[in-house]
Specification:
about 475 residues, alpha/beta, 13 helices, 21 strands, binds S-adenosyl-L-homocysteine, binds iron/sulfur cluster, binds FE3-S4 cluster
């Protein structure tokens, strides 16, 4: 059961925020918070809510934990290295706490929804003041108030299907691009994945809440909006209204203003022809799709519980490309799933050659406690998996360059997104509608504008170009 956070609960949290604000305003200088989000875009979006609530409580912000009065790690559990980084960073905070004993340290996010992790934090990191899970993010004001006034450890990790909390203030990173969660949780239980265990069941926000958020972002001048969900294609299935994801996109497309909308992630199992047709028809829906395939082997896909096979995936891609020839298509691949053979890995390589993705996110399988795949036989040694991984990268890098070369000579609309301090010549980072990165020399006064660029050169990772008159 999804719990909607009630207006009374939201009001109670506002009161706690006000009390923390009073405590903070009694200090000589406003307190400084350092919030670091370690995970996916959903996790970063939660980080924006955390910062929004902290700003309401009178906190300023710093990019560094050094000297901060509050450090919050918003964690990710999807692979072991994400968790290792958090433990490493937590270890380093011992020193900070020694220098500043009244500082607060908090750990939240997906990682702490796992019992073995919470136990480890409790035992090995006694200087952590707050540990709270993904379903109680909106209670941050209360947690901080209790931690500040009782000096007792606050641990709040309810195991539940999940909540929807509306009306949390946000502090967005950018004035140009914004993400909007349209749903939370996941019901798919891919056998390797921890997300359904730490994020709870799929639950959709009401379409009107989402439309209103898009309208106000567009009114504020935002030019690029990303709709977020672990599986956006099943948006709306849990709602009373008859709105599915394609309908939601079409309704967003009808909002007037100068903006593009994109989304992630789409599960190939539910990527419908209706969705592809809606994308093709709606001019504000960006020509971009992230469609994680995970493997090119039907046997491995079955063992992963993905509910599609190689042929279904390839057919989807063919239908999509027929409707939107210019589509920028990206994907996720896992190398070395338990029991994957050399031949099955090579099927992934041949799928890459067939689809020709624009770019990929690639991972070596990481066993996650409590998932079915963690208990499967995994005979291939890590050394071998690393070799496969390198072959995967080499194959994709070659394809990426080939695809980038096809852009040379073309004139494309771009959004001038940000300055690139690392490059004195090609000082502006621009984005095509498909979100390809183009480095362009130009004046910073162009930031935030839409311009036309002629593509002149490329590398594995990006394009280079020059502005041309409209
Ligand atoms: N909801 C999204 C993905 C969320 S996790 C989807 O279904 O596509 C992002 C990516 O991390 C996954 O697509 C997968 O490629 C990778 N991943 C998830 N669990 C993993 C694990 N245990 N080991 C390695 N990679 C994993
Ligand atoms: Fe994980 Fe699969 Fe859900 Fe994606 S769809 S979050 S990979 S369980
Ligand atoms: Fe995202 Fe990591 Fe959680 S990928 S949903 S932050 S486990």
């Amino acid at each position: 059961m999804t719990t909607k956070v009630t207006a009374a609960e939201t009001a109670a949290q506002k009161e706690y925020a006000e009390k923390v604000r009073e405590l903070n305003s009694a200090r000589e200088l406003p307190p400084i918070a350092h919030v670091h989000s370690f995970g996916c875009q959903q996790n970063v979006s939660d980080g924006e809510k955390i910062k929004g609530m902290l700003a309401m409580m009178g906190y300023g912000f710093s990019d560094s934990a050094d000297g901060a009065d509050l450090v919050l790690f918003n964690t990710c559990a999807v692979r072991e290295n994400a968790e290792d980084r958090v433990f490493g960073n937590l270890g380093a905070l011992k020193h900070n706490k020694k220098l500043k004993p009244d500082m607060l340290i908090g750990v939240c996010g997906c990682m702490v929804q796992q019992e073995h992790i919470t136990e480890r934090i409790k035992k090995s990191f006694p200087y952590v003041d707050m540990v709270f899970g993904t379903h109680v993010l909106h209670t941050l004001p209360q947690l901080i108030y209790e931690a500040l006034t009782t000096h007792k450890r606050q641990i709040s990790i309810p195991q539940m299907d999940g909540v929807i909390a509306e009306g949390i203030p946000l502090r967005r990173e950018s004035k140009l691009k914004a993400s909007i969660p349209i749903m939370y949780g996941c019901n798919n239980f891919c056998t390797y994945c921890i997300v359904p265990y730490v994020r709870g069941r799929e639950r959709s926000r009401e379409p009107e809440q989402i439309l209103e958020e898009v309208r106000s972002l567009v009114a504020e001048g935002y030019k690029d909006i990303t709709l977020l969900g672990q599986n956006v294609n099943s948006y709306g299935k849990d709602l009373d209204s008859n709105v599915d994801f394609a309908d939601l996109l079409a309704q967003i497309n009808d909002i007037s203003g100068d903006f593009l909308v994109r989304f992630m992630t789409s599960h190939p199992r539910d990527a419908s022809q209706k969705l592809f047709e809606t994308m093709a028809r709606c001019d504000k829906v960006a020509p971009q799709l992230h469609l994680p395939v995970q493997s090119g082997s039907s046997r491995v896909l079955k063992a992963m519980n993905r509910h599609y096979d190689r042929e279904i995936y390839l057919d989807e891609v063919r239908r999509l490309k027929a409707l939107i020839p210019d589509i920028v298509l990206t994907s996720d691949i896992i190398v070395g799933f338990p029991g994957e053979t050399q031949e099955e890995f090579e099927e992934t390589l041949s799928l890459l050659e067939e689809v020709r993705f624009d770019s990929l996110f690639t991972f070596i399988f990481s066993p996650r406690v409590g998932t079915p795949a963690a208990k499967m036989d995994d005979p291939v040694p890590m050394e071998e998996k690393k070799k496969w991984f390198q072959r995967l990268l080499d194959t994709q890098n070659r394809i990426s360059v080939e695809k980038h070369k096809e852009y040379i000579g073309r004139i494309l609309p771009v959004l001038v997104e940000e300055e690139n301090p690392a490059d004195a010549v090609n000082n502006l980072n621009c984005r095509t509608d498909g979100w390809r990165l183009v480095h362009v020399p130009g004046d910073v006064s162009l930031l935030g504008q839409r311009k036309k660029v002629k593509i002149t050169d490329c590398s594995t990772w990006s394009l280079f170009g020059e502005f041309v008159e409209e």
